[in-house]
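STRUCTURE REQUEST FORM
Protein name: Replication restart protein PriA
Source organism: Sporolactobacillus mangiferae
Requested output: structure tokens
Priority: standard
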Amino acid sequence: MIAEVYIDIPANPVDRPFDYKIPDEYLDILVPGVRVKVPFGNMRRLGFVTAIKDHSEFKRLKTIESVEDHLPVLTPELLELGKWLADTTLCPTVTAFQAMLPAALKANYRKIVQVEHMEALKKNVPELANVFGQTDRLNWTDLLKRHPESLSSVNHALRKGYLSIHQQVRSQGSTKKIAVVVPGVSKVRMLEVLQKLDNRAKQQKKVLQHFINVSESASYQPKMRALTQAGLSKSAILALAEKDVLVVRRVEQYRDPYKQSAKQTEPLKLTDEQQQVLAPVVRAIRNREHHVYLCHGVTGSGKTEIYLQSIQHVLALQQQAIVLVPEISLTPQMVSRFKGRFGTQVAVLHSGLSQGEKYDEWRKIREGKVQVVVGARSAIFAPFQNLGIIIIDEEHESSYKQEDMPRYHTRDVAIRRAQKYCCPVVLGSATPSLESFARAQKQVYTLLRLKERVNHRPLPAVHIVDLREEMRQGNHSVFSRELLEKMKDRLQKNEQIVLFLNRRGYSTFVMCRSCGTVVTCPHCDISLTYHRTLNRLKCHYCGFECSVPERCPTCGSDAMRFFGTGTQKVEAELNRLIPEARVIRMDVDTTRKKGSHERLLRRFGEQKADILLGTQMIAKGLDFPKVTLVGVLAADSLLHLPDFRASEKTFQLITQVSGRAGRHDLPGEVVIQSYAPEHYAVTDAAAHNYERFYTQEMSLRRKWGYPPFFYLALIRLSHPEPAYVAGAAERITQILKKQLSGSSQVLGPVVPSVSKIKDRYRYQCMVKYKREPALLPILRQIMQHFQESGTNGLQVMIDMNPLALM
Ligand code: ADP
Ligand code: ZN
Ligand code: ZN
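Status: completed
Returned output:
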């Protein structure tokens, strides 16, 4: 028999399966999805088996050397998904396979075969018991190498539970083990031993007595630690273990970072609105219908409760659920809501886990020990085999797009998987992406709405402050007079304040501080980017450039400045203006250490500070009853990012941040400071009016030809020689222009705003298209033709539907 194997060299020339002969002893366990070691060139490489067949068109095949897994790491569905990912995102197939697995499976690891029941093994599989001899654990690779003939009996023993298999992640230390103590002999025998024990062995007698008392219960497996804490002596236990009266076993324990058991919660009685949203989702679950729902619900409208109750229906049908949340909202608060409802049926996957911990969670999913996974982006690949629902919370978040290969959007993967399982996808957001809302308008998705907060708390009142006016009045501080006054008021009342400062886009654009004018590209309607080295303004979509105007083209003022302040500067100013306020600053600098993020938030929650000052990371998921004032210091820093989504991002951010105020009994207020107070992204967010924003933004997207009216494909090149990369970019642009239909546009080549990274010069071009069936094949050819290997070669990166265009 022959196996098709994808070798794990993520380079294009080998992006196809190779045929290998299967040694007879592996025939039983070699199924698609298992990883194998194979000779490749003059090396040994790891590979993924994707198919088994009985003949090959090639002669003189090499033979598979060893088998790495006893259970396929990729299910047939995930193998197929991997090929689809490779096709649609233009990445090597093996890269897609690897992206679906926990990192621990890529790292250096060792697999151990452990005897669980020696007696049963001796009785039923004696030849295998001989292989183990005196020891009860063997290295998997050694075992197979020395006794390849035993493979099928190993498998049999694994299935019967006589043996178990453990993965040791070397780089992370071994899997966590705890010692448990169990009787090694019958109760009668224990009593005999007790009689014979020397009277001076008081501690041993105490231990034995303990085990005699409880020995009726077969499941009694106390932890060593629990016994010693109960006052029994460890050395006495070990002494009895020496005599085989007790057995000390080291058992593997799943590491559970959220162990503090969440309090069990019951389903809440839904409001009418919630019921109307839940009903169609439950119908789709029951009827096994694939359907995409977009749940547009204001912050605090009870979306999470709807997720929880849909999952309950899924579990009742013995199916499984994937819940995706953005990394930053994967807070202990969020996790405990799922653990509180579904307890040990929940696995959690997020970037704070060690490799070993992630692997443990993944294995629980793979082995069917959990039915729900809550996680960030990559949890979409959870190896469930009977999915009943996929939920994507905050579906508009850009972190759902993976920026490295495979450059997939989680939403697309979710829909693809849900189609296979005929199950619903629920996308939830208070500010849906324009793409999703447009699809709902066209009835591709079904729109479900929650217009009210559950507790009928009004959405907070939002005040917009015109920073240009502050300038004119001679106030050069980052705080407007109104915001400062309100802050002092809250401090007096012992209430809390959240201040939000966006640092992205810092200093990349030039703005008139008197009238708020930002110079934009006449062809693309996006802010021009300042290039320091050239002292010029450039459009990084189409390449237009001009010099920095000395005077504002709108009002003639000479106050054209680079824009932006940092959190540190704001903190210093706070100390100067309100010295009595206790401030917690949260930004990349203060949250670098593991756990510091949670610690700072906890301190704020315990009211050990009055003001929480932070960047993006405080925009989401925070729920503090005492927060009654939220200030957005400079709403414009996002608005003028050189990105056609700048308005959308601004609207989303203001809405999110405002949602932090007045969630409980105390009413909330929001102050937004802006140099563009009349901009619709600011005014519509202040008025909590998504639909008006949507309509306005869509008309601009249509006018300028951006998504969702057009699709984008970004081709980015880099090379150490600027002239070389410019030439290649030019040729690629020409090829695209010649081969694509007239309805598509090819923009560029241009130098992106970050023009050089690690001494490699960058160029990019972009395709805007509506329907272009030839695009993927052409791009694949371009990739194959232009991509060079080695660190000095030309690198070609293609991003279908890019989110980051810089
Ligand atoms: P969202 O996810 O839309 O922001 P949440 O699900 O967090 O909203 O709900 C906001 C608050 O309302 C939470 O404290 C939640 O426990 C509560 N809640 C949700 N649904 C109900 C309900 N039907 N009855 C009472 N309280 C509810
Ligand atoms: Zn001006
Ligand atoms: Zn332009």
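Reviewer notes: The radius of gyration is 31 Å. The first strand starts at residue 2 and ends at 7.
Form closed.
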